[in-house]
């Protein structure tokens, strides 16, 4: 398989035709003649206000895309500022995080017919020197425009207070309505909540600033100023904030050496990127409990030393992820997945084991135990069984409604609960595979591990990885052990420990 095109943030040194080492995203010497043109004119403007529940949600708002960059950008030089902003927010589920995002795409500039430079052409017969000088990809296109992301962190006394604030603000957009400041101050007093505002932008006015870090309306004002600047002086405020890297091979040049090694290194970086986001959420949650023990009830047997140990080991896992990614960048031919990398370095991954019990919020973050199932559900893992488990069909429909209609009904629901690569993704699956995907989704939904809104933002692979991680935590068995299981088996194994999380 050939090297894939990648989309990464712009960094200094990137220009049209400049060679790039794909794994590290480092700029090299110019390898292709710069003859670029603009695509069709016209700006694309997006504005969104959303609730942030995970680090991955914030990374997506920051236009950090594991799939589009194949993990390269997330450990290379081009995304440090965005990642540092995401880390500084410290997303965790005990508080409320909201984001306002504005992006402007003015146009895409691209080299349509890439030709090697004279210097590059002269080294076609010396692939060893060629790759060291020019890398394996080149800057083919640039997306001009700008990006603005503002985040408000609302610190509450409990998760139930968080949900009450969301409700009283009439949903997401209430934070940024015209009377938001007065209403928000009233809610802060009522729930004894505090807030902190943060902002990040690429392009736009250079004088954007927050005068009152407790006023969420300032985010909206700055976002509007950001958008207005592109209307008034687009050429002055726009920047190249994303570039497209294409393989040098399309410029009639030599095929990059060790193409398979490079592709494997990209896959390793993509895995590391996803695990890092998950581990950051885990660390933020554990650290929040350790830093605010007074907000939690430990009477259920939860132990602070176990929580502190899990937090320390989660940090160790994050350090190993960084080392694993660095090794893949520096030595693509030896790139290894985190589990194998750990073994090769005399340690284990993951090292962190989540505590068996976590404390409860003091003000009723979790409903009373009697509202949950006490008997393990036993769904049947076929199309009929998934529909019945989800409540999307009645028993008297089985054998009456044609099977193809029931399958279509299941697919319609699943399309609303996953980020799929194509509109016909679920439809293309065989029934046994479709059933497995449904089992994973329904398990996450039924146990409230993920909401429907969260599932919509996750690929089926990310949903599967979430169940594997939970199975790993509760069983003590390694991530690779559970990776061997099929989707239906994973969900069924998880029900052995999770059925008490399912409301009756």
Can you walk me through this structure?
The protein is an alpha+beta fold and about 500 residues long. The protein is about 45% helix and about 15% strand. Strands 1, 2, 3, 4, 5, 6, 7, 8 and 9 form a 9-stranded antiparallel beta sheet that branches. Strands 10-11 form a two-stranded antiparallel ribbon. The radius of gyration is 25 Å and the shape is globular. A hairpin with a 4-residue loop joins strand 2 and strand 3. It is built from 20 helices and 11 strands. The longest helix is centred in the middle third of the chain and has 33 residues.
What's this entry about, in short?
The protein is an alpha+beta fold.
Classify the helix fraction into a percent range.
40-55%
Radius of gyration: 25 Å
Overall form = globular
Q: For the residues shown, what is the average pLDDT?
A: 81
DSSP strand count: 11
The biggest sheet amounts to: 9 strands, antiparallel
Question: Termini distance?
Answer: 49 Å
Which structural class matches the secondary elements? Answer: alpha+beta
Write the topology of this structure.
Blueprint (H helix, E strand, L loop, with lengths): L5 E4 L8 E4 L4 E5 L5 E3 L5 E9 L2 H7 L4 H4 L2 H4 L4 H10 L6 E16 L6 H4 L5 H8 L2 E19 L3 H10 L11 H12 L2 E9 L14 H16 L1 H4 L1 E9 L11 H33 L4 E2 L6 H27 L7 H7 L15 E2 L21 H8 L12 H12 L16 H16 L5 H5 L3 H16 L3 H5 L3 H12 L6
Antiparallel strand pairs: 1-9, 2-3, 2-7, 4-6, 5-6, 6-7, 7-8, 7-9, 10-11
Helix pairs in contact: 11-12, 14-15, 14-16, 15-16, 16-18, 16-20, 18-20
């Amino acid at each position: 398989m050939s090297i894939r095109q990648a989309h990464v943030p712009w960094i200094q040194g990137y220009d049209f035709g400049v060679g790039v080492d794909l794994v590290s995203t480092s700029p090299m010497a110019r390898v292709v003649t710069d003859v670029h043109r603009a695509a069709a004119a016209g700006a694309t403007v997006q504005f969104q206000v959303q609730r942030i529940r995970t680090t991955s949600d914030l990374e997506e708002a920051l236009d950090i895309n594991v799939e589009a960059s194949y993990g390269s950008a997330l450990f290379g030089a081009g995304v440090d500022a965005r990642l540092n902003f995401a880390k500084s927010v410290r997303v965790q589920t005990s508080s409320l995080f909201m984001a306002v995002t504005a992006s402007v795409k003015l146009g895409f500039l691209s080299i349509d017919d890439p030709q090697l430079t004279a210097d590059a052409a002269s080294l076609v017969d010396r692939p060893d020197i060629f790759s060291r000088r020019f890398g394996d990809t080149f800057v083919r296109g640039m997306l001009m425009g700008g990006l603005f992301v503002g985040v408000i962190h609302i610190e509450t006394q409990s998760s139930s207070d968080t949900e009450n604030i969301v409700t009283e603000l009439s949903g997401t957009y209430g934070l940024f309505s015209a009377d938001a400041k007065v209403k928000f101050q009233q809610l802060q007093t009522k729930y004894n909540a505090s807030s902190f505002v943060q902002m990040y932008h690429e392009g736009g006015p250079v004088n954007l600033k927050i005068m009152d870090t407790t006023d969420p309306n300032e985010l909206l004002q700055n976002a509007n100023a950001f958008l207005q600047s592109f209307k008034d002086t687009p050429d002055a405020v726009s920047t190249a904030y994303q570039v497209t890297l294409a393989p040098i091979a399309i410029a009639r040049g030599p095929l990059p050496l060790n193409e398979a090694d490079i592709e494997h290194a990209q896959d390793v970086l993509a895995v590391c990127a996803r695990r890092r986001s998950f581990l950051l959420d885990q660390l933020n949650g554990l650290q929040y409990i350790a830093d605010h023990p007074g907000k939690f009830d430990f009477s259920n047997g939860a132990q602070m030393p176990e929580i502190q140990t899990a937090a320390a080991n989660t940090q160790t896992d994050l350090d190993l992820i960084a080392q694993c990614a660095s090794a893949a960048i520096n030595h693509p031919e030896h790139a290894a997945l985190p589990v194998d990398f750990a073994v090769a370095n005399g340690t284990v991954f993951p090292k962190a084991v989540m505590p068996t019990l976590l404390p409860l919020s003091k003000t009723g973050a979790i409903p009373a135990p009697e509202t949950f199932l006490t008997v393990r559900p036993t769904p049947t893992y076929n199309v009929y069984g998934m529909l019945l488990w989800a409540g999307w069909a009645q028993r008297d429909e089985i054998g009456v409604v044609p099977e193809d209609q029931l399958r279509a009904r299941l697919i319609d629901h699943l399309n609303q609960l996953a980020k799929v690569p194509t509109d016909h993704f679920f439809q293309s699956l065989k029934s046994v595979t479709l059933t497995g995907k449904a089992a994973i989704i329904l398990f996450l939904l039924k146990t409230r591990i993920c909401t429907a809104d969260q599932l919509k933002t996750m690929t089926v692979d990310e949903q599967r990885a979430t169940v594997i991680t939970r199975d790993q935590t509760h069983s003590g068995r390694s991530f690779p052990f559970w990776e061997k299981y099929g989707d239906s088996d994973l969900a069924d194994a998880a029900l052995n420990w999770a059925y008490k999380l399912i409301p009756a």
